Each structure stands twice: as structure tokens, then as C-alpha cells.
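User: I've been trying to design a sequence by hand for this structure and keep getting stuck. Would you show me what you'd pick, starting by listing the structure so we're on the same page?

Assistant: Good idea, let's start from the same input. This is the structure you sent:
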């Protein structure tokens, strides 16, 4: 009976020693799995992907150019038929990376002004900084171009100097016309598919200023004709 008791005692001791080891291994495995699930790092790679869209209609923009800039460097790609683009690159930690876009008959997203809040599908996308070591899902909305054709015409006689001034969109230069009997056309390019405040100032004898303004919808890829008679 003694050998059996010794064998049973040894077996119980072995099982008692083995249980903590199994539990420890299980904890290590679970910890590793949890860490892997929570680690979104791409180990030095960065992915940037999404769609290039019309800000007014959300239609995809094919053949647009999406650009990633970092320092004095850049890379670019062309969007496909569905407006899709994708970058997968090894990044350099010393640089900040930014994504911009351009397309034919669209404004770029590098100068989005206060007018952008009036777009019905959300404002066009500003320049965006890329998060490194991650997958960046970045849709870019560009404003389509539109036009306003001003027709400036004097219909009331005035004995003195008359000057008409227009401040074009996206310009610090004032367009100025002088002279009696003015009958002039001027075309301005603006982001289309939204409302803009447009108009001009009329100055008589260098000191009498009259402002004529309206807030009007500028169509996509088309021209709004705006007549100012004074």
C-alpha cells in the first residue's frame, strides 16, 4: 500500500505545480491577442484612401489628381472612374504629411473660405493632415467652378467723375472702371453650386460711395448674368 500512496501523492503534487504554469501561459496568450487586436500600427507604413467628390452634388470626380505633400516632397495619383484613390507608402517620421487635390473645372481644396458653409452636402474639404502608421479614410470634396458675368452700364447722366469697382473672388485686386457712358462686361470665376454675395461699388466725384450687392446662387459649370445699371 505504501508505493501506491507515494505515487498518488507525487501525481497530486505534479498537477498542483502544473496548474499555475497553464494559467500563466493562458494569461500570456490572452494578453498577446488583446494587444494585437488593439494595435493599429502598420509598422512604418501609412495608407491614405478615399474618394474625390463634387462638393455640390457628391458625384465622384474621375481623373482628378490627389497629392500628398511632406516637406519639399510630394507624391500624387489619379482617381479612377469612381473617384477612388489610394496611397500605401513607407513614411518618414520627421515630416508632417498633408493631402490636397485638384481636378479640371474644380477649385482645389487649399483655399476654402467662409462661403463654403452654404454647400448643401457639407462644406468642401480643407487641406488635411495625415495620421502616420494608420489607415486614413479621407474623402475629399472639391467645389465646382461657376461664373458671374457682370454687365455694368450707366443709364443716368452725371456731371462729374464716376468710378465703378468690383472685388473679384479670390483676389486682392480691385477691378476699376472710369468714365461717362460706361457699358462694360466682366466675368468672374467663383465656386459654383452655392450662394455668393456679389455686387460692386459706385463712386461719384471720388467720395460718394454707393454699394450694390445681392446674394445669389452661382450654378455649376455655368454663368450667372448680373446686370448693374446706375
Amino acid at each position: 500500500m505504501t508505493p501506491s500512496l507515494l505515487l498518488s501523492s507525487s501525481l497530486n503534487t505534479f498537477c498542483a505545480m502544473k496548474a499555475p504554469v497553464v494559467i500563466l501561459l493562458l494569461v500570456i496568450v490572452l494578453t498577446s491577442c488583446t494587444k494585437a487586436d488593439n494595435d493599429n500600427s502598420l509598422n512604418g507604413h501609412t495608407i491614405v484612401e478615399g474618394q474625390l467628390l463634387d462638393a455640390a452634388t457628391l458625384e465622384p470626380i474621375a481623373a482628378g489628381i490627389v497629392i500628398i505633400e511632406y516637406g519639399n516632397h510630394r507624391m500624387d495619383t489619379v482617381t479612377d472612374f469612381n473617384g477612388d484613390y489610394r496611397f500605401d507608402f513607407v513614411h518618414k517620421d520627421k515630416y508632417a504629411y498633408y493631402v490636397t487635390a485638384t481636378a479640371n473645372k474644380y477649385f482645389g481644396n487649399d483655399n476654402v473660405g467662409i462661403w463654403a458653409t452654404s454647400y448643401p452636402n457639407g462644406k468642401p474639404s480643407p487641406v488635411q493632415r495625415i495620421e502616420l502608421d494608420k489607415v486614413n479614410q479621407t474623402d475629399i470634396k472639391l467645389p465646382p467652378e461657376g461664373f458671374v458675368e457682370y454687365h455694368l452700364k450707366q443709364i443716368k447722366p452725371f456731371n462729374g467723375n464716376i468710378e465703378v469697382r468690383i472685388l473679384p473672388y479670390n483676389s486682392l485686386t480691385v477691378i476699376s472702371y472710369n468714365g461717362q457712358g460706361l457699358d462694360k462686361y466682366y466675368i468672374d470665376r467663383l465656386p459654383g453650386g452655392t450662394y455668393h454675395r456679389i455686387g460692386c461699388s459706385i463712386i461719384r466725384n471720388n467720395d460718394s460711395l454707393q454699394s450694390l450687392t445681392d446674394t445669389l446662387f452661382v450654378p455649376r459649370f455655368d454663368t450667372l448674368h448680373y446686370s448693374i445699371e446706375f
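That's my pick for every position. To get oriented when you compare it with your attempt: The domain at 145-229 is CATH 2.60.40 (Immunoglobulin-like). DSSP finds one helix and 15 strands in the chain.
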